[in-house]
């Protein structure tokens, strides 16, 4: 069972926080409220007991190529270690893409991932954007996805009336994402 939450109930929030802390020790808890975070949760089994996997959807407007796009990104995608390899992460990411595709307030889903995870996200319906770099952080303290030693790929899904034209704007370019210092590179 999958649920989408703007505000997590306390017990669920504690489980999500524990999963994120185990995956990224010292990364800090939570997401920047300015990015309108929504958490997507997949439960272990049919009930709403233990969280099997979760991720957070973040949003902001991006100005690029003379246009303004309502972007959403995947952040903090994690599956409980003992449940990995069962397809749960793929189900979660596919469901998140469907949530974004159905949202009339989202033009593009856009995020970076470790390059070796590209096939995982492509199987969930995202496409790699060759030559594209996300500029995270802030303009004063940028975090580019092509920073030396930072082997990232940029993936996207386009939900505009003319996805091919939008894809062309986002391909082989440096995108000023600048989500801030909390979610430096979603």
From TrEMBL:
<dbReference type="InterPro" id="IPR016181">
    <property type="entry name" value="Acyl_CoA_acyltransferase"/>
</dbReference>
<dbReference type="InterPro" id="IPR000182">
    <property type="entry name" value="GNAT_dom"/>
</dbReference>
<dbReference type="Pfam" id="PF13527">
    <property type="entry name" value="Acetyltransf_9"/>
</dbReference>
<feature type="domain" description="N-acetyltransferase">
    <location>
        <begin position="3"/>
        <end position="144"/>
    </location>
</feature>
<protein>
    <recommendedName>
        <fullName>N-acetyltransferase domain-containing protein</fullName>
    </recommendedName>
</protein>
């Amino acid at each position: 069972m999958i649920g989408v939450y703007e505000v997590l109930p306390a017990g669920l929030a504690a489980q999500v926080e524990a999963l994120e802390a185990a995956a990224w020790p010292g990364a800090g808890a939570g997401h920047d409220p300015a990015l309108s975070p929504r958490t997507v949760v997949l439960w272990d089994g049919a009930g709403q007991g233990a969280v099997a996997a979760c991720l957070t959807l973040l949003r902001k407007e991006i100005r690029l190529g003379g246009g303004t796009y309502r972007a959403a990104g995947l952040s903090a995608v994690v599956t409980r270690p003992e449940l990995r390899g069962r397809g749960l992460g793929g189900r979660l990411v596919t469901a998140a893409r469907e949530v974004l595709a159905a949202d009339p307030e989202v033009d593009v889903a856009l995020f970076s991932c470790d390059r070796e995870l590209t096939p995982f996200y492509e199987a969930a319906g995202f496409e790699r954007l060759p030559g594209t770099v996300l500029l995270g952080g802030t303009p004063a303290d940028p975090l580019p996805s092509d920073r030396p030693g930072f082997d990232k790929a940029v993936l996207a899904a386009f939900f505009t009336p003319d996805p091919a034209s939008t894809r062309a704007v986002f391909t082989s370019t440096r995108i000023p994402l600048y989500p801030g210092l909390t979610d430096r590179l979603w």
